[in-house]
Amino acid sequence: MRQEIIADVKRDHIVNLLNSGKRVDGRAFDEYRELSVEVGINQRAEGSALVKLGKTQVMVGVKLAVGEPFPDMPDSGVLTTNAELIPLASPSFERGPPDEDTVELARVVDRAIRESQCIDMEKLCIKEGELVWIVFIDLHPLDYDGNLFDACTLGAIAALKNAVFPKLEENGRIDYKTKTEEKLPIVDTPVEVTFAKIGGHIVVDPCLEEEEVLDARLTIGYNERGEIVAMQKGGSGTFTQEEILDIVRRGREKAEFLRKHIPG
Amino acid sequence: MRQEIIADVKRDHIVNLLNSGKRVDGRAFDEYRELSVEVGINQRAEGSALVKLGKTQVMVGVKLAVGEPFPDMPDSGVLTTNAELIPLASPSFERGPPDEDTVELARVVDRAIRESQCIDMEKLCIKEGELVWIVFIDLHPLDYDGNLFDACTLGAIAALKNAVFPKLEENGRIDYKTKTEEKLPIVDTPVEVTFAKIGGHIVVDPCLEEEEVLDARLTIGYNERGEIVAMQKGGSGTFTQEEILDIVRRGREKAEFLRKHIPG
Amino acid sequence: MRQEIIADVKRDHIVNLLNSGKRVDGRAFDEYRELSVEVGINQRAEGSALVKLGKTQVMVGVKLAVGEPFPDMPDSGVLTTNAELIPLASPSFERGPPDEDTVELARVVDRAIRESQCIDMEKLCIKEGELVWIVFIDLHPLDYDGNLFDACTLGAIAALKNAVFPKLEENGRIDYKTKTEEKLPIVDTPVEVTFAKIGGHIVVDPCLEEEEVLDARLTIGYNERGEIVAMQKGGSGTFTQEEILDIVRRGREKAEFLRKHIPG
Amino acid sequence: MKVGEPEEFIIDGRRLDGRRVDELRPLKIEAGVLKRADGSAYVEWGGNKVLAACYGPREIHPRHEANPQRAVLRTYYSMAPFSVYERKRPGPDRRSMEISKVTRQALESVVFTHLYPMTAIDVFIEILQAQAGTRCAGITAASVALADAGIPMKDLVPACAAGKVGGHIVLDLFDIEDNYGEADLPVAIVPRTGEVSLLQMDGNLTQEEFEQAFKLAVKGCMQVYEKQKEALRKRYGGSE
Amino acid sequence: MKVGEPEEFIIDGRRLDGRRVDELRPLKIEAGVLKRADGSAYVEWGGNKVLAACYGPREIHPRHEANPQRAVLRTYYSMAPFSVYERKRPGPDRRSMEISKVTRQALESVVFTHLYPMTAIDVFIEILQAQAGTRCAGITAASVALADAGIPMKDLVPACAAGKVGGHIVLDLFDIEDNYGEADLPVAIVPRTGEVSLLQMDGNLTQEEFEQAFKLAVKGCMQVYEKQKEALRKRYGGSE
Amino acid sequence: MKVGEPEEFIIDGRRLDGRRVDELRPLKIEAGVLKRADGSAYVEWGGNKVLAACYGPREIHPRHEANPQRAVLRTYYSMAPFSVYERKRPGPDRRSMEISKVTRQALESVVFTHLYPMTAIDVFIEILQAQAGTRCAGITAASVALADAGIPMKDLVPACAAGKVGGHIVLDLFDIEDNYGEADLPVAIVPRTGEVSLLQMDGNLTQEEFEQAFKLAVKGCMQVYEKQKEALRKRYGGSE
């Protein structure tokens, strides 16, 4: 029960601050934490990125392999997005098969990548119905201090833009040690923007302390044209309809802000 | 310990009733509960049935797929019977991989279907040694009030008789949305009959309250000719040899009764 | 806490004995327990051995199958070594997926077999890049009284030397019931020798009571020429550098001793 | 173009299954359909057939999941192997895990969990036959099952999707529209306050299209809400 | 006809392995073969080689499985990877799970479990080499291992199968008969009362054939019982 | 000869990556790189990039693993999916399980676990990029992370491998040498006493070669030790 009481005290503190217009780490309500995106930081991956969003650190690796296409998409490559919440990154992450938070993270990031059609999947077809490129995106948080959705989506699109094809040998096997000059066909730059609702206030980019006490969360994916390509509400609380319409409008500008941090 | 005492009290009550010739739900010792079998109740399955046996409800779906035959049976289709005891159906069912009760249920139902040779498996051969039909029978109890063996076997054979082939395309893939007129080749109608021994009394079709206190259980599968095709004793108690011979003889008539409820 | 105290008392007893030059079961410090190796004791395996080392009993089975080679070794067979620590063999073994002790045992035995190149893997190639023999070594302790490393390695090489090929049919399937006269191509006879350090004393072939209290363990694999092919230090304690050099020198003679017990 | 994609989604103002753009598929809800569960509901919604059962408040296992301040609400969404064209292998997959989570979060705000500390309230949703929109059907069935189990709740939670197909904003997508359409937007609301407890989207919508679809989905939820109340009235009588 | 099926099963009154229809395969039982187990038994029965070990009564893990009125008997049947022609992947499969269950139910009625509340009695059966009839060999070995561990029991439990091959009712099928025959009927009994604690069947038997096979299996059990007692006498001396 | 095997490993006294036989790859160690962990370290060692984090002493789950006399040290070695050329499937494999075990045994002797009975000290090692020698890099990082977490220790534990390639004994194999060389001998030591807490070998070494390689590896460990101390000095100032 002590843990519950501590949580209540923390929440009161954060809500009191918000009531007087302040966030727990001093930011404005619509302000992201300090953000950096480095790419090409992993020589084993075909593409890679390290995102630092405040103290949150996420590494993303893009690996390419070849395999059969899905039968209903014979001329299209395959995209697979995977997340691992390794216990190195947080005392709240546990070993074992992916839990629902891990799965949700992977699927919400995947949604923005997939639905924005940012990868030209038909260019990944090697031989129709037989052999296509498979794109693995591995989301790998290293230090979890809140808002993995936005950090991982940024890392994913940055790593995709960084990725080059390895050499495909005639026997259909890949020579991973020989990289070509050819880049993955990336035609859009989706990003995700997350807002949290805490005690009636709406803030962007929740840090861990805010995530721990939030009522509800809304993540929105935008493509380059500002269209909405993915949404995910979280948390056991609710939003009013007006709040949702407002957040969706405001998020677009935040998306522009995030997109500027992607190299290349 | 309280649970154990409650169980003892329940058992005493049921045995006392049996001693005076009565069952806990008012049935005769050799009487089944009210029974109905509906077929064709699922449009995604190739064949389906909903069995209601008293308050026990079981849905069975038959799905067809194609694949390779077993190497020692190159001209024969493949039969796979699976059960799921989903926690929706009973407070005693738990999530997770199949436990021994689930596995026993699937295997005992499978035994009657397989050993009665009710499916003409050679008619399921598409190309010898290469491509055959695979028949999946999924046993899916929805409300567990006792005697899943008999209800599931009934549902399985009813769903098999209800099943039609989907369209097989030239490339070896199945167009599930287009069903053909051709029915699965079903050549026998096996059923299973379960008796329980409680305090020395033998009753047919145990309801849940009886199952919870029984000493021993005997399930017998019969084909259309009244031959025995499967047996399974359960429970930690024993039967006398005479009891077994007597049950096996009496079961045949119960099998006829059950078989009448199968549509088509 | 009681268990911890009992362990301390046991340890004191064993160390006191060692201080006065004695081992708990009366052996000399450099003496193995009574050892026997029987081969051909299993008619389903292509090769088999039963090793008794004191009260430790290990059965090893070698099974052969066919499959694809690894892409980087297209003309080479495949070796797979597996251990199971079944709960029948010890109250400390638990059911479930292999734990780290099981995996270590399999890998350390595998290391000696693989690195000594005792199997001529190129002779296991049936058709380059397509079909090769796969050798399964299954280590199966039946009664665990200490020093599984040495017993299992002995069993593995004895079972390999005992193994004959089953008949390979023209269609690429194996007729296991028909064994040929041809033996597996075994060209070396590696063995492993294990020393334990207990209270500063070094003893060979620790029995279970010694294993339970040892500070550190060193297992060394030797080929027929006395070269070192595998090593594994265990235990949470340490060895001095001198101890290691000394053990490695002394182990060679013990390896000769063990090798003499392998039939054929 | 994907294999099987239709050329047009709306012909003469009618969708491929004959509905208008703002029309729900036929919806039937029945409460109290199972003996063993503490509460249950069966929903037929177009080609969806969904069963929900509620057990609880009851003892919680494993014990360390208990909360001394409130009941723990657990929701499990699962698809029967024969609920889809290609047989689904039993056991939870990633999609089911995500839906189980958002379903729980859609329902948590209405259940008075603080009345039952240290207990579990378990809701199981079984998709027996699927034709798109199963998560909405599941949430709709689940809140009726909770009510049928006598769990005190602020309100029922109806759910309904809107989306975009062939350039049109439509209500309640069926499978062809879901597979080949441009966007799907499932929504759940708490009708008495109008607040939103579930919101997901995948596809592509402009700002304006989103607003239009969102409002349409909320309207759909209100129609579903009427059916939920009707089912409970039918089971328990009274005027609710 | 399956690949490998023999044309006839009985030639000149002899089965393919030379036995008469009512003859057991050679059976050898040894008690007390392992150091670590509290009780153990080794059975060679035709081409079957089976080891059974009993641990207990002992502390039970996980704790919540404990029963305050009696010991919990747990039985685990398992096949070594090299026990069959095609290597068996380690770990329990569905067949092993079913056999573990019926084995437990075959033994539960004879063990005085109420003497050891809150404990576990664990029996592990390991099939080292299989030639049909391993569940009967396992039950036979298990009850000797229980006795060897000093667990108080009403009686030993011998098991033996009968079946039908090539139209004949025969005792104790070996692998060719099991694979290609018409029916297999494993039975376990409690000899002092003659009661039946295991009964399974798959195949096809008329009423009359069943009765004939059942009685033959019971007779087989009694022969097995003699071997069990002999093994225990050999280990512990006395006349049992 | 394996696909990709080089014809010579040492040309004009230089290895294929330009090093001398007794030369380490470039090694960089940084302590305290993570916010959430109680202690952490990042190691770049040639083409290896390794992160280690220490949590503890902390409550232990599951509880029955607690030891009333000392803390339980738990170590987990894991490879990121993108750390190797062919994507590694997530989750522990057999190799990782073995390395986790020998890593724990390499560190246990230096940690004063008796100061924290009933607790866990957890060390997680994540290989972000691999170029052979990751277990040594992991142990090296882990002991710095333990120190960074303020866990009292007798000493740091540096680790380094030696091996044999193309007939030469060399220090600190990189991937081509590891894949195609004749032997690999990873060693970890406790520098203050010179004692050996990790020793593994696979390949082929004569007695003399072993002694030479072993001594070379110990020397390598001492160089690694200097880098470890430097990293901690850099983080905490002082002269260590």
Can you describe this structure?
The complex is a heterohexamer, with three copies of chain A (264 residues) and three copies of chain D (240 residues). Chain A is built from five helices and twelve strands. Chain A has 264 residues and is an alpha+beta fold. Chain A has one domain (2-259): GHMP Kinase, N-terminal domain (Ribosomal Protein S5, domain 2, 2-Layer Sandwich). In chain A, strands 1, 2, 3, 4, 5 and 6 form a six-stranded mixed beta sheet that branches. In chain A, strands 10-9-11-12 form a four-stranded antiparallel beta sheet, with helices on both faces. Chain D is of the alpha+beta class. Chain D contains four helices and eleven strands; from the N terminus they run E-E-E-E-E-E-H-E-H-E-E-H-E-E-H. In chain D, the strands form three sheets. Chain D has a five-stranded mixed beta sheet. Chain D has a four-stranded antiparallel beta sheet with strand order 9-8-10-11. In chain D, strands 1-2 form a two-stranded antiparallel ribbon. Chain D is globular, with a radius of gyration of 18 Å. The mean pLDDT of chain D is 96. Chains in contact: A-D, A-F, B-D, B-E, C-E, C-F.
Number of strands of chain A: 12
Low-confidence stretches of chain A: none
Average pLDDT figure of chain D: 96
Main beta sheet of chain D: strand number and arrangement? Answer: 5 strands, mixed
Average of pLDDT of chain A: 96
Largest interface: A-D, 41 and 39 residues
What string, H for helix and E for strand, traces the elements of chain D in order?
A: EEEEEEHEHEEHEEH
Helix content of chain D: 25-40%
Backbone structural class of chain D: alpha+beta
CATH class of chain A: Alpha Beta
The description of the largest β-sheet of chain A is: 6 strands, mixed
